[in-house]
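Let's sit down with a protein and look at its sequence and fold side by side. Once you have written the record down, we can walk along the chain together.
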Amino acid sequence: MRVARRAPSGISVEALCRRGFVGLLDGLTTAAAMAPGETLEAYVEHRIRGAMLDFMRSANPAFAAARAASRDLARLLRRLRDEGSPHAGADELASGLGLDATAYADLLTRIAEAGLARIDVIDLEEGPQQDPSGEEPRACRRTLANAIVQLPLRERNLLGLLFEEELSIEEASAVLGCTSRAVTCLLTQTIHRLRADIGKE
């Protein structure tokens, strides 16, 4: 279901499930290719996810382009953080991507429209092998909470409006005194800063 939540609106959950079933069959028939020490469950899960993500990319070429741009943004934010600029703003990020301010806003909008600017895209429990004790997901959530505390104030306030006060984008834009598109762009940037901080490109 985490993969399904990433799907653009034009791709149905039913279609994704059908493609996941193909991945399941593929995993079961190619299990001999498992790496030493890898469990069948982890191997098959990887094949299912791969089949579903491949389907999403092939069914919507714009999604693949948006996903690549999303990774580039997260990697840039991570590099700038490591270089001592954890609060790099829109102008610095646009420059780092070789874009002007308008093109950068357009890029953030396309990423959001592809469904890649949601908090649930940060898969706190994803991985090739799950920790049955549940400790690893809890540690990831603590890491995310710490990353939120370190956000620039405006980005932290935006998350508070959207996820604590449960305001809509339009309502948040009224509180912040900006357009809905500006809120969408800021949210996209914020989610990618969090992804960069916790290593989820």
